[in-house]
Design brief:
This is Right-handed parallel beta-helix repeat-containing protein. By secondary structure, the chain is mostly beta strands.
Length: 704
């Protein structure tokens, strides 16, 4: 400690001689025993944090700012950076951790794996000493900066469930049993896969199940290959969404499944095996296994009014964060809400993350959890993530000082998520209010782009006055999960506005696949000036809710239905006015329209391929007789080239008849220089694969 204080006092002296420019430098070649100057930098963020703590003990530094300048290079983190109330800055003098100008420093929570040799079978193998001597296991692996695939079967497609039986061991008070055993019989593909599992591998084998909006990850307790049977235990199945016939699974984490290029498997004896892809050589291939389960933790104590405040992160890159699969696996949970995050912020104010990057992680990227307010994340590149992008609030309704509010999520690229937990979403807002989600690009997720609200039905909700605007949300679903959307809402959300978003290419496995989805109890939400196209089952769907307004939107080219509503109620469910609906296949409306209480009027409907207009099995005249669309039109909207997704207008005459007001949908999405814009684009092979998945799915007859 005396040595550290000596260093700090040296920094104090130097700082005063530099006109109070309190900059602390860190470098990959530094040393935490150094002074922290430009010529004698520290080595770690933790070292810089500790230096600031000691400097602040000096009265002269109580009202001074600190900037930690991070030099270029790779920083292998041995522990997460943890910030507590004593690590706060002030409004006038924030504490800033930032990259040196022109630098792109990388903070890795992983470990490089090397010394591979090629076996006679063409596999590469190496011994991981930490796995041999310390039983270190990792559940993700990154090869040449890409997520490698844990050995699985089948490599393409799925095994289907034939029959499921459940034995409840302990019911408990919930509808979901506390403990239960499931006996699952598989189809013929499952039987073949089970025959390749060695008995001594059983403790490691897992199955992943995809059922409606849920995803279940479990270990296997026992199996009988001849009967195509696996036995697993954990919580009871959800009565409203159980595993059952035709639900899809894959098996993973056993040696015989290591049969496709890009797959890996870690044996119990510490031998890591990898099947190389074409063009890969041992010399040109980098392997990094994630070690740390968290990279940054910011933790105050709101109940004692001790927050972490005024800390900024600028221009830093964070990679290789491990999510360890629990022995119990992962029970189904919507939006993968039970995961942790690589950067976790709780009980903090004025925390700002800008121009950063988070990638190659097993869980969520950033979570402003309980007790956070007046903070932001902007122009941050989040990609190749096991969970979701940015999560706000808590899944419990926390009041007063623990309530999260006023978080800005702006101009971020959030793509290629849900890679380990497909139910994760791009941006999730739980019990949190007054947030702004704007100008983000959210693409290549399996469940939902933006999810707002965390109450099912009309119970009190804290998700109020959230603004979801000018986001570009696209290529969501991949025909993997169901009951999902580009933008998904839940519960009473008075004051919430969903506006000026561009939403397209949304496709579910069975039902669902909507552009905008007002689910159970959604109340008081305004959906306006949104362009939605290329969905599976509609630009807008309301399950049930109150007094929502859907106004001045363009809803285009859904494949099955353009509009849906599910459950009618005695009160007014929603208002649907001044919208333009254009399509070339499927029905106009499907659902509970004959009995729903809704104001529907002054809309344009146009079938660009035929004269067929099916309004829930009514023609337009019969539809009007239900009290809908008294002043609406079946007429051409005169878009310049709707089939090519150009929805600007050639003529004003028709849309003016319904009071539609044109909006500039090109303003949706991120903004900035050309390099930033280019970074948001999905590779052609990804969008082409999405289109192929849609085409295949539409040919299938899938039971709900």
């Amino acid at each position: 400690m005396n040595n550290i204080k000596h260093i700090v006092f040296a920094i104090v002296f130097l700082s005063f001689n530099l006109n109070a420019q309190h900059k602390i430098y860190i470098s990959p070649n530094g040393n935490d025993a150094n002074l922290g100057t430009k010529t004698e930098p520290l080595a770690t963020l933790i070292g810089a944090r500790n230096a600031i703590r000691l400097l602040k003990e000096n009265q002269s530094f109580k009202t001074q700012a600190f900037t930690v300048i991070v030099k270029d290079g790779l920083y292998v983190m041995k522990a997460p950076l943890e910030l507590f109330p004593e690590d706060s800055g002030t409004e006038e003098y924030p504490i800033i951790y930032k990259a040196e100008e022109g630098a792109h420093p990388v903070f890795s929570g992983g470990k490089t794996i090397s010394n591979f040799i090629e076996t006679e079978t063409g596999l590469w193998q190496t011994k991981v000493p930490e796995s041999v001597y310390y039983n270190w296991k990792f559940d993700q692996l990154y090869v040449n900066n890409n997520r490698a695939t844990l050995a699985k079967t089948p490599n393409q497609g799925f095994i289907k469930i034939d029959t499921v039986f459940q034995n409840i061991w302990k019911q408990g008070k919930s509808k979901v049993a506390e403990r239960a055993e499931q006996i699952i019989y598989l189809d013929s593909n499952g039987a073949k896969a089970l025959q390749n599992i060695k008995p001594n591998e059983l403790k490691n084998v897992r199955f992943k199940a995809y059922h409606k909006w849920d995803y279940t990850l479990r270990h296997i307790d026992d199996f009988i290959a001849d009967n195509s049977k696996i036995v697993t235990s954990g919580k009871g199945m959800k009565p409203w969404n159980p595993l059952k016939k035709d639900r899809r699974i894959i098996l993973e984490n056993y040696e015989a499944a290591l049969d496709a290029p890009g797959e890996w498997f870690l044996k119990d004896n510490g031998i890591l095996l990898y099947k190389p892809k074409d063009g890969e050589t041992i010399n040109n291939t980098e392997f990094i296994a994630p070690v740390l389960g968290n990279l940054i933790t910011i933790a105050g104590n709101a109940s004692e009014n001790k927050y972490v405040q005024y800390v900024n992160f600028e221009g830093l890159i964070f990679k290789h964060c491990h999510y360890k699969i629990p022995p119990t696996g992962s029970e189904p949970n919507q939006a993968a809400a039970i995961l942790n995050a690589a950067i976790l912020v709780e009980n903090a104010k004025h925390i700002n993350i800008s121009n950063c990057e988070v990638s190659n992680i097993g869980q969520h990227a950033v979570w402003f959890g309980k007790g956070c307010s007046y903070s932001s994340i902007n122009k941050t590149y989040i990609h190749n993530i096991g969970g979701g992008g940015v999560y706000l609030g808590d899944f419990k309704p926390l009041q007063n000082e623990l309530h999260t509010h006023h978080i800005s999520v702006e101009n971020n690229i959030i793509k290629s998520g849900g890679q380990e937990f497909p139910a994760a979403v791009g941006v999730w807002v739980g019990h949190s209010s007054d947030n702004t989600i704007t100008h983000n690009d959210i693409g290549n997720f399996f469940y939902t782009g933006v999810s707002v609200g965390w109450v099912w039905g009309y119970k009190p909700s804290l998700a109020k006055r959230n603004t979801i605007s000018y986001n570009h949300i696209h290529h969501i679903g991949w025909a993997l999960l169901s009951d999902m959307a580009g933008i998904y809402t839940l519960g009473a959300s008075e004051g919430t506005v969903v506006e000026n978003n561009l939403i397209h290419h949304i496709h579910s496995y069975s039902y669902g696949g909507w552009g905008m989805y007002a689910d159970e109890g959604s109340t008081g939400i305004v959906f306006k000036n949104n362009l939605v196209y290329s969905t599976k089952t509609g630009g807008f769907q309301q399950n049930y809710g109150k007094h929502n307004v859907v106004k001045n939107n363009i809803l285009a080219f859904a494949k099955k239905y353009q509009l849906q509503c599910t459950i009618p109620e005695k009160h007014k469910s929603f208002t649907f006015t001044n919208n333009i609906i254009i399509f070339n296949e499927g029905m106009v409306a499907k659902g509970a329209w004959d009995t729903v209480v809704a104001e529907i009027d002054k809309n344009i409907y146009w079938n660009s391929s035929s004269t067929n207009y099916n309004f829930n099995n009514h023609n337009f005249k019969e539809w009007k007789a239900l009290g809908f669309d008294k002043h609406s039109l079946i007429t051409k909207p005169y878009f310049k080239d709707a089939e090519a997704f150009n929805f600007s207008f050639k003529r004003k005459k028709n849309y003016k008849k319904i009071g539609f007001k044109p909006f500039n949908y090109s303003e949706a999405g991120i903004y900035g220089d050309d390099a930033w814009i280019e970074k948001s684009k999905l590779k052609p092979e990804i969008t082409e694969a999405f289109d192929k998945a849609v085409e295949t799915n539409m040919k299938m007859k899938i039971k709900r």
